[in-house]
Amino acid sequence: MIRLTINNQEVEVPEGTNLLTAIERCGLRVPTLCYHKALTPYGACRLCVVEVHAPGRAPTVQASCSYPALEGISVFTDTERVRRARKITAELLLARCPDSEVIQRIAAEYGVHEPRIKKKYDDCVYCGLCVRMCQERMGRSAIGFTGRGPRKKLEPPFGKHNPMCWTCGACDFICPVGKKVRSLTSPNIPIPILNPYNMGLNERPAVSIYYPQAIPNKPAIDPQGCVHLKYNACGICDVVCEAKAIRYDQKDETIQLNVGAVILSPGYDIFEPKANNDLGYGRYPNVITSLQFERILSPSGPYGGMVLRPSDLQPPKRIAFIQCVGSRDYERDYCSAVCCMYATKEAIIAKEHAGEDLQCDIFFMDIRAFSKGFEAYYETARKLGVNYIRCRVPKVEEVPETKNLRITYLTDDDRKVSKEYDLVVLSVGMQPPRSVRQIAETFGVRLNQFGFCETSVFSPVETGREGIYVAGPFTEPKDIPETVSQASAAAAKVMALLGEARGSLIAPTVYPPEIDVRGQEPRVGVFVCHCGTNIASVVNVPAVVEYARTLPGVVYAENNLYTCSNDSLERIKQKIKEYGLNRVVVASCTPRTHEALFRSAVRAAGLNPYYFEMANIREHCSWVHSHEPEKATEKAKDLVRMAVAKVKLNDPLYPRPLKVCHDALVIGGGLAGMTAALALADQGFTVHLVEKEAQLGGYLRRMYYLLSGEDPQAALRRLIATVTAHPNIRVYTNAKLVEVKGSLGNFESKIAVGGNGMTQEIRHGVIIVATGAETYRPTEFLYGQDDRVMLHQELEERIAANGFKAKSVAFIQCVGSRNKERPYCSRTCCSETIKHALKLKELDPDAQVYVLYREMRTYGFRETYYTKARKLGVAFIRYADDRPPTVVNHNGKLSVIVRDETLGETIQLLVDHVILAAATIPRDENKELAQLLKIPLSEDKFFLEAHRKLRPLDFATDGIFLCGNAHSPLDIEEVISQALGAAARAATILSKDTIELEPTISHVVTENCDGCAYCVDPCPFKAITLVEYQVNGETKKRVEVNEAICKGCGTCMATCPKKAIYVWHFRPEQLLAEVRAALGLAV
Amino acid sequence: MSEKQFEPLIITFCCYWCAYAGADLAGTSRIQYPPNIRIIRVQCTGMIHPNFVIEALTNGADGVLICGCHPGDCHYLEGNLRAKARAEAIELMLEDFGLEPERFRLEWVSASEAQRFAQVVTEMVEQVRRLGPSPYRMAV
Amino acid sequence: MAVRLAQEWFAICGGCEVTILDVGEPLLDILPQLEIVHMPVLMDHKLYGQTGEGTEPEIPEADVGIITGGIRNEENRRLAQEMRRKCKTLIAMGSCACYGGIPALANLSTVQELYEKVYRESVSTDPDGIPSEQVPPLTDRVYAVDEVVPVDIKLPGCPTTPELFVEALAALLEGKPLSLPSKSVCDECPLIREKKAVSTLKRPLEPIEFKPGEPLNTVRCIMEQGYLCLGPATRAGCGGKEGIPRCIRAYMPCRGCFGPLSDTANPMVDMMGALASIGLDAKQIPDRAATFNRFVGAHGRLRPMPKGGRPV
Q1: Closest residue of C to B135, CA-based?
Q2: Angle, nearest 10°, between helix axes B50-58 and C267-277?
Q3: A354: Cα separation from own chain's centroid
Q4: Any idea where the domains of chain A sit in the sequence?
Q5: Residue from the list B85, B93, B100 with its beta carbon closest to the beta carbon of C269
Q6: What is the pLDDT of residues C3-15, one digit of tens each?
Q7: Where does A876-958 have alpha helices with state H?
Q8: Is the pTM of this model over 0.90?
Q9: pLDDT, tens digit, for every residue of A542-553?
Q10: Quick one: which of A92, A88, A25, A34 has its CA closest to A61?
Q11: Which of C269, C299, C302 to mutate: most B Cβ within 10 Å?
Q12: Closest chain A CA to residue B82
């Protein structure tokens, strides 16, 4: 080892280290243009000069990159002499390349803004980086210097394109002034490595983090693009990586896992239009897929969230969305179920990003806004000016000069219109994954006619092979909430199968006993991380450490190359013991990735993990202020001071164990309730199933046949029999929930049974709401006045009883749905109507069947039956939203008068029967139950889940779950998926003996709280209640926090006018200490 | 060198779930913005008592910026909406404390909006720089 | 030996002096223990000597000094300093002395504006000049007594309550410390609290819902009824013996006369935060600063509004 001093700081470096490296190791910076860690030092730019004092010799100025670190020398990086030398060099460089921003910045640092000598406007600084790169790293020597002195020139041998050149582009990459070197060596243009995450709209390097949210958030090498893996050259990343984390020898591995069950969720692939498609995809740059557009809209996308089109990166003014590309066609007779809504969403977001003037036209066949909240969203889009044009676009043509696109279409009133757009987005459908055949073969699962996995209505996650379950669009195109529900459903099935083995592979971490340091003066240890050069190349780390030592309460501070490395973590533990530290601050990266790691180290040293704070001096400092090292260093000091100020006020906190009762309460004994109950009972939990009617079965009792052909009554009988006979299920009929106390893990409820005033008390850990819905009783279309006007179920019961005969039948859709009063779609009625229409045709192929509709919403595979019905001659007549049909009694026949929007004419149908597709409506009792359980209802008065997309089965209140028609109108398969899913969600709680609740929740300061009750209603989780208590014979009030429900959002803390409630770890004193520390005030 | 530019100090409260992550992403994406902000991490913008903002401003902060999740994205359902309501109250009170309304700002920044975070910060710093030092700033 | 008592009044209405009278019969027990050496409301005592020969005001030595009223002019300031010099224990009595009180609402304006308004713009005055002779100059703003001299005991309230006054005196005589309640008015308020979700504020003139004589614990929280009540940010203790806040007892909302919960608290910020949190659009609150700081305008809680641009 060589010992020397740099700016009077003692350093030890291995022999052979150059001065520049030694200087950087101290966290200091010297400017350089020609030095690169992976290349031999060249000493060309002379910017890195430093003053070297060797013992007994006069001080000299040396280029630190090419001068070795020698024993006993003293180096000074910032003397007047050095600055003068650098200033002259910077001025000369600036005169050579006055347009280079890099040189401008370096020159400005030394106070040079204009060179005093004549500018040369060269594009090369002769640093030789590209030459060394090509020779040393690529082994090609495709470029070099010719000539001498003023005639020195960068060029390939003989000034010609050089066949040695690989077109790897390393020369362009390394050039500090942005010269296009590669164009000198080769006529070829490098093929960029397209970024698959951004759907190929931009490029990425051969080693990169796949996308910003990738887990693990680590870079990987693309073997197809890596010069090292392909040609055994380059290898720069290995040299540059301070952590020595590059592994070229890593290979794909085959791992064997022993599992008890498999869930197949391979997802889907998007439809890719064929090469010579009429829509121009692949030929015209401005015809893109919806997923590409999704990336364009994303802030982390190729254009940083700006709405631009690919051909010229200009913002489009007119965008056309073409629906049903790869869906609902001859080959793919199914609906992809999501495209209508994503196109609508993309149009709205595009308008948000680009301004209201952006014209968005959506060409569609039917807008299928069938899911919860979708119809309202569709309405919003229309209000925001998104145009919906009903036409299947046959062809897109490009205007070659502008790369604009022309679409010719027929309007509703049969006019031919031609419109020009700047960008066309194809709403591509979902297809089975490309590897589907292989998956099917490997796992022995059956595929349907379109290549999706085959399941059945009553077992939506089962493949027919035991132990293999399936979830997501692999079974049928579906949206996020349905996917999430189904995934939980598959988990429920697996848990029933593997319940006994639950938790058997978990190894708990064992920590030493905790030291009680309460009451001690704070003794803070500060560890400042270099993060290789990530922090140290910008922030002066030693200065930050030095500063930290001056802070009150800090007894120890040091810097680490990587604080997160194993040896550094050990050091932290060791220093805690050595210096008796009772608080630790790590100044490094973001707590979002590393807090858990450091907390665990602090805990392992016997301290409470909450005696720890992080100062984020990487993501929030060095990386975002890389050109302002001084200011970044000051900021880093401030961030450390803030963290120290806070950590001194930290309290020891402990996760709160909550004992869990393993029983479940399921409200509603219909298909959803019974399915959920059975799924939990099969996992070994006791279930109390409460049904208000005398019998189980709910709405399913009135269904006799299904589109897919299964017998619902047989399935229902089986289900009821299993439920009633199940040892773990207690069924209460004629029963009603009248009282609920407690919360997650420990509910106590009263059930009124039999309606005679008898109540029964039960204890349970979770609640599943499966109360179903009702059918709208229409007052329109002569319903209730004329027996021949019936609802779906009445028709179904008549057919089932062989009591229905008719020569002509008209179905009217959207009765009571999608109107002012109920602005939502009832989702199931279109498919139900198709089911009945097909049945009628089956009973009498000559029967005249008319379907009067606004939009046929036969999503997913239901589309196939819609096609079948059309083929069988069922007449579909579209009426406009504001022109519903009328039904009158015309000489004994029912006369239906409707304006057919496709024909553009009003027609009269004389029919034997009119069948109404009545809305599914929420139960009146929902309101009562909502109050009882303190759970919210949506605007449509169905129950409101915690998150529309990601938490469809949870309520915001922990321990209460939702499934079935109480959520929104759903069909049988969806109800079963949700019910199984809700059971799985519930089992995540029931399967534990105790739940560890986060300690960072609200705490009432009894001395300050006087029960003004301001915080009670703002609490989003209804975790706060007002209570009375007695003191000296007086009744006083205060609030109480239900710790099982509180999530620690702090809404109460920000509401309280008297500092009487706070969130642990974020107490007002702690946050204000940070504020004061940031302002440089005494804390 | 010309006269030294005024460098404002802006206290920035970031909710941990969205804006803090957005600021992190600005880091990983190396998006540059002025170093005048000091981020204080909070669980939710809904936990920021108006007191914190007023205390910061009356103790010499040149500006206060609050960044939270977009409406509908709050990890705690509606904390950000409460923050919005309180921000309106804070804006009213700035006048009572003799402070310009531009010294305080509430913005929505999602975890993926690194660019937006940088832009918001840059704008805020410039805005406050134009106003000059806080009237409460201790004479240095 | 009797306790020597000095009392002085500054910017005040005289209500607190009436409070002393309002002590009622217990006063008869206390009076013999007191020797009043200075009290302008009761007795004529020449501050500058019998013939006005003094240059500085002088007050006799006393064990206990009571100051009512805030500091509005230079004479107040000097007298306060003299009181502090001469009295072993100094009591600031009433919200004016403790927090500035109603006179401190003048802190919303600059002295110059006050002069303009009173001596020039007012219709009833002859717009002649601003008197400067024979009157002490105004201080730049109204100060609480403790901003000028250290105060030992603060008795807030507008006026303070006879009970609190007696308690303070008794404590002093017995040499015990006096502690004020740390909780807010809500702690003593018996009204029922159901749901705090107020979207529109009612005007104070609209009738509060109650039946005359109705027991208070069946009446709904006045804030919940839509009337601005400062109870949550105001110190408890105004209720006296009955322990029920004075205004609430009269079916009226709290106006904040007992001052903030702590010396550092700002009732306006605390109340605005709380009100915004329960859904009230704070723009509805008329004359915000003065409403929330009606009694506490000293200590910089009220300041002149900036007139266009730069703050003052």
Answers
A1: C311
A2: 150
A3: 23
A4: 2-109, 129-185, 192-248, 269-431, 524-651, 659-773+923-994, 775-921, 998-1078
A5: B93
A6: 999 999 999 999 9
A7: 926-933
A8: no
A9: 999 999 999 999
A10: A88
A11: C269
A12: A1051
